[in-house]
Design goal:
By secondary structure, the chain is α/β, with parallel strands linked by helices. It is 37% helix and 18% strand.
């Protein structure tokens, strides 16, 4: 599929609009267009004058219109630097046009806007509110949630509500309007979703992907000025059948919901509840009152540590921080930071007077080097422990996107060189080694049901497991001096 893009003058902020504090500064409006010449000027004017407290970027993707829409889009873009104009040289469908627009987002928040006049861009302020307050990752504008609206055709409304009900059932949601055009999403999430839809099936696919991501979805009432087929409405009954197929495909057949491999692995690991309870039991004897969890991910283990006197949660992935904030941010004993877990980062937490570091690199791309181990050693108070959970080395695992793997003897030597005494060193999860490969969240949840069997296999099979658990203790020099 060839694209034609209308060039625009670049401004200093065109490559991104976050300030140093990561504040939301720009809203990207994604507008697919196919033969909408007579409503384009009006809807573009409404978008650009929407009363929102943000910069507006309007990305218009013309899907090979034949009525002069592209020529008008070029004219509008030439007169306003906020408009990005792109053209498909062949008609590819609404979903394809939106995926093209997503690839050009520069704002921190994005919203879909149809090119007709059914949806009013002045509703953007209402949609933005839950996101700007930090409560939501995505906001749907519901046509059926109590707002004044033009009465829609019965069968069109009934089919929409039926599709919404089915989507709710399979995704465990409680939306009133899944098929709404107005879906506003944080851009850092939207750009990482695995979206393949070409047509109007974009709506159920995006809903399913957001649910699989674990996004916080809000719904707000919006007005709606529905148009009829005589007025140019393009959706047809067959699109309802295609939506049914898309709900089934995205939920049960193609469950890889994100292009971010690391986040996908973390989401899968979060389903292993029995495994994490077992792990918490294994490390309990070595946990002090003031704990730092390095590589907290989505908080799978963190939830079992929150009753400590002090818990510092750190992760290198920016996408994990909002999830941790949502789960644990309201607790007075929890601190949440972003950090790359290098030696200089550990200096930031010396004022916390920590006695334990729990570090998991099971699904992280960053390795643990000697300076990082030394940083952990310097951070922990004497007599405290460093607990490492690492993927074991496997000769047959050659996947490039897999996390770095560790040799048991080698990491033990590096810990001793940093000053630790090794008090526990073991491999576990033999069945995981035999299975190999990357499991989906659904497969992990199934495997977690058989975790007791996995523990039995560790005792019976003469094969090292795929995971390492290593605990190092920082010597208590004062205690040794008194004993001497």
């Amino acid at each position: 599929m060839k694209l034609v893009q209308q060039d625009r003058e670049e401004t200093p902020s065109s490559g991104g609009s976050s300030d140093s504090n990561g504040a939301v500064r720009r809203l990207s409006v994604l507008m697919p267009v196919y033969n909408e010449r007579w409503t384009l000027s009006e809807i573009v004017a409404r978008v650009l004058t929407s009363p929102v407290p943000l910069e507006i970027e309007l990305i218009i993707v013309d899907d090979c219109s034949t009525d002069g829409s592209w020529e008008l889009i070029q004219e509008l873009a030439a007169g306003d630097a906020r408009i990005v104009a792109v053209r498909h040289e062949q008609n590819s469908g609404k979903g394809t046009a939106l995926r093209t627009a997503i690839g050009r987002i520069s704002g921190e928040v994005a919203v879909v806007q149809d090119a007709d006049l059914e949806y009013d861009p002045h509703e953007f302020r209402t949609l933005l509110s839950p996101i700007l307050s930090g409560k939501a990752d995505a906001v749907f504008g519901s046509r059926y949630a109590g707002s004044t609206r033009r009465v829609s055709p019965f069968w069109h409304t009934t089919i929409n509500k039926g599709l919404t009900l089915l989507s709710n059932v399979v995704n465990n949601l409680c939306l009133t309007d899944m098929e709404t055009c107005y879906k506003m999403v944080r851009s850092d999430i939207l750009k990482r979703l695995q979206l393949k839809s070409r047509s109007f099936t974009f709506e159920p696919e995006l809903t399913c992907r957001l649910a699989q991501w674990g996004a916080r979805i809000y719904e707000v009432p919006i007005g709606y000025n529905s148009r009829t087929y005589l007025d140019g409405k393009k959706i047809r009954p067959r699109d309802g059948i295609l939506a049914l197929g898309e709900i089934f495909r995205a939920r049960f057949l193609d469950t890889r919901f994100t292009v971010d491999g690391d986040f996908y692995r973390l989401s899968a690991l979060a389903r292993a509840t029995r495994y994490h309870r077992w792990l918490a039991e294994q490390i309990e004897p070595y946990l002090g009152a003031r704990v730092l969890e390095a590589g907290a991910g989505l908080g799978s283990l963190s939830g079992l540590l929150v009753h400590r006197e002090r818990l510092v949660l750190v992760d290198e992935k920016p996408l994990c921080i909002p999830v941790l904030q949502q789960r644990f941010g309201g607790r007075g004993n929890v601190r949440i930071d972003s950090g790359q877990l290098v030696a200089q980062d550990f200096e930031r937490w010396h004022d916390e007077q920590l006695d334990t570091v729990v570090c998991s690199r099971m699904h992280q791309q960053q390795a643990i080097d000697e300076p990082a181990l030394q940083g952990m050693f310097n951070l922990i108070s004497p007599g405290g422990h460093c607990i490492l959970l690492l993927p074991a080395s496997r000769n047959f695992d050659a996947a490039r996107d897999q996390p770095p793997r560790f040799e048991l003897d080698r990491i033990g030597e590096e810990m001793m060189e940093a000053g630790f005494d090794i008090v526990l060193s073991r491999r576990f999860d033999t069945l995981g080694r035999l299975v190999g490969g990357q499991l989906s969240p659904r497969q992990v949840a199934l495997a977690d049901r058989f975790w007791p069997l996995t523990r039995l296999a560790d005792l019976l099979l003469p094969i090292g497991g795929q995971s390492l658990l290593i605990v190092g203790r920082k010597p208590d020099r004062k205690a040794k001096s008194i004993a001497a």
